[in-house]
Amino acid sequence: MRRAAVAGAFYEAERSRLEEQLKECFAGVTREEKEGVLGAVVPHAGYMYSGGVAANVYAKLPGADTFVILGPNHQGIGSLIAVSEDTWVTPLGEVEVDKSFVDALPKRIIDVDETAHKYEHSIEVQLPFLQFRFDKNFKFVPICMSLSDEDTAREVGEDLADTIAKFDKKVVVIASSDFTHYEPDRMAREKDEYVIEAITELDVGKFYNRIYERNSTACGVGPIAAMMHAAKKLGATQGELIKYATSGDIIGDRSSVVGYGGLIIF
Question: Mapped to the 3 state alphabet, what secondary structure does 208-250 carry?
Fold first, then answer.
C-alpha cells in the first residue's frame, strides 16, 4: 500500500476539506469532456498555486479505463524509470494500479520499483483530481522518471504506445510537470510560451531544442516528451493549451515565479 506522502502539505489531508479544496479549484470551470484526448500536461504544485490550472485540464478529460501518469523523480531515489504496482491511498480513498497493463509493459527500461515513488509528489497530487472527477471508475499506472533525455523519453513513449495498443480499453497518458522555476514573471511567461508552442505542435525535436535554447527549468521534460511520443504513435496530431498561470497570479509577487501550463493532446 502506497500511503499519501504530501497530504497536509500540497493538498488538504482530511477528506471533507480536500473535497472543498477541489470544489474551489473547479469553481467557474466548465466541464466539457473531449473524447479524442490521448494525452495531457498537468502541473503538480500545491493546489493553492496550480490547482486552478489542473482543474481546467481535468474538466476536459474524458473518462478512461486507465490513466498512465508520468512524473519526474524529484527525490532522486529508486530506479531511473520506475513503475509502481501498489495500491495508492489518498484522503479520498484507494486507487488501484492496472496490474495487467504493468505486466504487459516491456521491461527494457521500465522497472517495477516502489522506492522511487515513496516520497515523490508529482504523481500523487494528480490522484485526488481523478478521484474527484471519476470517483472509483478508473485504474492508473504511475511511472516515475529520473532521466529526461530524448532517447529515454522516446523509448518510454514507444513502450507505452505499444502496450496501450494491446488492450481494448480507453487509456489517457498524463505528464505531470511545472514549467519555469523561480524567474521573473515576464521571463517565465516568454520562455514557457516558446516551449509550450512546440508541445502543441507535437514536435518533440523542437521541444527539446527550445528547452535547451532557453535553458528551461521545466521539471517534467522527460514525462512530457514521453507522453508526446506515445500520443503521436497512437494517432494524436495536435495539442491545445487550456490554461496558463504563474504563482505570481496567486500571491502577487512577480519577482520570482513558477509557471504552470495545462494542455491536452488529441
Answer: HHHHHHCCCCCCCHHHHHHHHHHHHHCCCCCEEEEEEEEHHHH
> What are the residue ranges spanned by the domains of the chain?
15-265
C-alpha span between 202 and 197 (Å, rounded):
9
Please write the tens of the pLDDT for every residue from 23-45: 999 999 999 999 999 999 999 99
Quote the DSSP letter at residue 183. E
* C-beta neighbour count of 205 within 10 angstroms: 10
Q: Are 260 and 43 in contact (CB under 8 A)?
A: yes
Query: Per the confidence metrics, is the pTM higher than 0.90?
Result: yes
Judged by DSSP in three states, 196 sits in helix
pLDDT band for position 80 (50/70/90)? very high
Q: What is d(CA 69, CA 51) in angstroms, rounded to the nearest whole number?
A: 17
The pLDDT tens digits of the residues spanning 139-184 come to 999 999 999 999 999 999 999 999 999 999 999 999 999 999 999 9
Grid coordinates given for 43: 502541473
What DSSP assignment string belongs to 97-145?
B-HHHHHHS-TTT-EE-SGGGSS--TTGGGHHHHHHHHTTS-EEEEEEE
CATH architecture of 15-265: 3-Layer(aba) Sandwich (3.40)
